[in-house]
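For the sake of clarity, the format in which proteins appear in this thesis is described at this point. Each number in the token line that follows is a code from a learned vocabulary of backbone shapes. One such record is shown here in full, so that the layout can be seen directly:
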Amino acid sequence: MADPELEAIRQRRMQEMMAQHGGGSQQNPEQQKAQEEAKSEADERRQMMLSQILSSQARERLARIALVKPEKARGVEDVILRAAQMGQIAEKVSEERLISLLEQINTQTTKQTKVTIQRRRSVLDDDD
């Protein structure tokens, strides 16, 4: 394989990897700016809906959770928004109700950790 062929393959592979990880330069700056604006607009609507659904204490607790575990807070927000869209939430969610929801989610998503210890025997150990 000649060097120009190898270089062409490397360039194609690099472009594929960049496209997969979202760092691709295939999009022009206007498209990137439009995507960022759409994302910020969606986040803004999401926060507005949450402020209408959650009480101030519940919003504060959820914000503290988001500082420690953002993915967990995002999941809780998704559950709350989905319930509100389906009409299951009639009044503002209080802090107590948020806590009970968090406890339910914790019991459903607890991961069982298993630790196995494998002892290695040394060549010099005698088992007489």
Notes: The helical segments are 3-20, 29-53, 56-68, 70-85, 95-109.
